[in-house]
Predict the 3D structure of the following.
Amino acid sequence: MSRATRAAYGQTLNELYAQGIPVVAVDADLSGSTTTAKFGAQHPERLFNAGIAEANMTDVAAGLALAGHVAFTGSFAVFGTGRAYDQIRNTVCYNRLNVKLAPTHAGVTVGPDGGSHQMLEDIALMRVLPHMRVLVPADFATARAAIRHAAVTPGPFYIRLGRAGVPDLYGPDGVTGIDPDSDRFDVCAARVLRTGSDVSLFACGVMVSAAIEAAALLADAGVDAEVVDVMSIKPLDVDTLVASARKTGRVVTCEEHNVLGGMGSAVSEVLSELCPVPTRRVGVADCFGTSGKPDELLAHFGLDKHAIAQAARSF
Amino acid sequence: MALADTVFDSHQVKARARLMRLEIIKMLTLAGSGHPGGSLSAADIVATLYFGGVMRHDPENPDLPDRDRFILSKGHAAPVQYAALALAGYFDRGKLATLRKLGSCLQGHPDAAKCPGVEVSTGSLGQGLSIAAGLAQGLQLAGTTTPAADPGQTAGRTPPRVYVLLGDGELQEGQVWEAALYAAHYGLDNLVAIVDRNGLQIDGQTESVMALGDVAAKFADFGWDVDSVDGHDVNALYAALTTPNAAKRPRVIVARTVKGKGVSFMENQAGWHGNAPSAEQCEQAVSELQAGEDGAAATPATTSMGGDGA
């Protein structure tokens, strides 16, 4: 089954409020696309549409958090981060407020809307902010887990959600057999989805399923790849990443983001200090996106299983 | 001392405002940098809020759930809020001498994590009205919801009021007008904005840098109820600040002020936006303020730079 991570948003807010968590949401004229409208349909008094005004949306959320609510914001990743960066830095993060940014439509899988709407720098922008936590879920079930974790953990969060459907990897229908509803599921842990000895594939977001597929291609070629889902980019599960890198001696990072500043950079920063190993970063090569279908764009920008497998064989 | 039941006394408020101006000058002189002009222009506004019985607040219980809130959107005027908070007893007055110094709770711009009585850190202009709108809305929501979703346990009570002080130059930030639309759209009738209309900004007169025109008319067009007052007349300020909002209407008070008010050589001088006085200038300013025109006796003992915590 294939579902978009954004589809988890409004639905999970409803679950959280039903459990007594005082969630509110502010959107910027995109509540249908972000799915916060599903929350508004059940709790119209707790969803506020700010109109096309992302800076105001973000600071209104800050004010709602000051009043004791758990404030989520909508919008698209490109506007929800870049358009409101000063508000996120100087108000949300500087005050360490209970604001959870979960914009949707990140990355090239936005598709035909083109480069203006395909946010490829958001992980970089968000992870350098003090107090900010950054989560990039790979599928519907982990998106839901990320939203739930953010709602009950004080302080700012950035949760990167996507527009396009992605295969269910977790939960009852998932290939990993891992249940994010389990008490043992740790949102902040890097998760080893396939053990291997020759190369480590560290992936996040839509690239996790591509990494799993790449590992199958590599196995056919006699390369035993380890696949790790790095959903939490900040905090980074350093122990798991270092252990994997130490075991395999080669790392490929895989993300639907500029190769500058994203998960690959975060991993490289840590490994260069603790366990320097040859590393390849699969991502968008410091350029803007372009119009096309999501699958076409993933192939066009070298973000598919073939690109990952090729990188893994390039050492 | 709980200030929730303070009765307005114009002489008392004027005396506090004058004392705040003295503290502003002294702390900025010691700091060697900072923003005197916009701190002095706002002193009567802030004194009326804190010492005129306008705001419900308690220095001994800064987190009182149903306190009224004050947000200093023009965060560079931090000294005016610090002076009010110190005089109200939120922290020891001696701390004013640490303004802008390493390790101080009195950061160059207000830091809520460090300074008791500061609701939210500010400093980047244009954001305070949005924050205040969200806070006002959140406080309304808290009062109308189930206990499980009512963090302040304020169900059934009148929502606290949120007062936010903006500079006039700050109105050039587009976000202010996003927030103005928002507050009117959602009918935030526990929100009161005050514009410190001193007419000057760093580069000169607001009307020559980027003309604001008729600020009151602009807010009225955005759906706000508007009052325009002399921002140094504490009686007028008290009347404006205590007028209840009409149902479902945010209020703005455009307070005409003089930048640098109370210090002759600073008044109406854009150059005093962001420069600290020298020791000699401080001396002159202090003597002018102590010989102030409001008739209240100067009280040198309570303006000592060391602070006495009283």
